[in-house]
Amino acid sequence: MPVIETVAGGIRAFAEAWRSFDGDVTSSGFAGWMEEFAFAMHTLYEKVRTYFMDSILPVLRDDVFPVLKDIGKGIKDVFDGLVGIKPNEDTE
Q1: At what angle do helices 2-20 and 29-51 cross, to 10 degrees?
Q2: Which residues, 6+ apart, have CB-to-CB distance to 74 below 8 Å?
Q3: Interatomic CA distance for residues 67 and 73, integer angstroms
Q4: Do 39 and 62 contact (CB within 8 A), yes or no?
Q5: Is residue 39 a contact partner of residue 20, using CB atoms and an 8 Å limit?
Q6: Which stretch of DSSP H or E encloses residue 42?
Q7: Separation of first and last alpha carbons in the chain
Q8: Enclosing H/E stretch for 17
Q9: For the chain, what percentages of helix, strand and coil (3-state, to nearest 5) are there?
Q10: Is the entire prediction scored with pTM above 0.85?
Q11: Are 9 and 26 contacting, i.e. CB atoms less than 8 angstroms apart?
């Protein structure tokens, strides 16, 4: 079936264009469009990844995770304190 072959060829072209990431469109028709689409999506992926690594990850690492660690330690301390409490006769 020509439709299935065309779609399969487009998927292969997408995968190869994603891997090479050089912006070179070597096919025409649907496969060529898939190559262009792969290049555009890979470019977007790289920009989002760079933004995450340069802007979001440092904030998480330096500001958010230490606060979460302190909150977790506080919660642990509360439960550690509860272990020493003995039930009274009213709660049994």
Answers
A1: 40
A2: none
A3: 10
A4: no
A5: no
A6: helix 29-51
A7: 76
A8: helix 2-20
A9: 80, 0, 20
A10: no
A11: no
Distance, CA of 34 to CA of 69 (rounded, Å): 45
* pLDDT value of residue 92: 52
The first and second tokens of residue 55, run together, are 């802007």
Cβ neighbours for 27, distance < 8 A, ≥ 6 positions apart? 9, 13, 34, 35
b (16+ CB within 10 A) / e for 16-50: ebbeeeeeebebeeebeebbeebbeebeeeeeeee
Residues 6-57: pLDDT tens digits? 999 999 999 999 999 998 898 899 999 999 999 999 999 999 999 999 999 9
